[in-house]
Model the fold of this input.
Amino acid sequence: MANVSVFNMEGKEVGTIELSDAVFGAPVNEHLVHMAVVQQLANNRQGTQKAKTRSEVSGGGRKPWRQKGTGHARQGSTRAPQWKGGGVVFAPVPRDYSFKLNRKEKRAALKSALTSRVQNNKLIVVDELKFDEIKTKKFKTVMDNLKVGKALVVLAEKDEKVIMSARNLPTVKTTLTNTINVYDILKGDTLILTRDAVAKIEEVYA
Done:
């Protein structure tokens, strides 16, 4: 088991915590990590792009000139793709880009992402995150104490004061243990977990 230091909100080390190898020491499968990221981005796509084909644009029912004798190339319609105002050849149509990953693949990808953060020393465990009021400046002070810029902060329980305090920081995103995903873990340069969040993640994914 990996031993990781536990810090308080002042950035001082207050102890250590043993991380479960089943979650934070799993084999890193880069292919599954890639597939999990692609799936999340694909599932977020609206898929509402639409352009008209030559059969859908208005006009062009009449042949613009006779077939022979004009010196022009033969044309059957002014709404063919080569004409201004014509239809698009292979026009995009609304579609669903989403696809599924097996549950075991999702879990393995998440464990791989968590393990990679431990291996790269990009995981910070804090004793707790508690605020008396909603104050962005206080949250920024905590980030400075931990010497962290861009980060994903994972909480065990929903804490409105913490979430609202971090909301105006463009480089910080907060989430709960039941909504963490591979994309957010990799996008945030550092992963910050509370001690309770570590216990909850290990309980669910071990």
Observations:
- The chain is about 35% helix and 15% strand.
- The two ends are 13 Å apart (CA to CA).
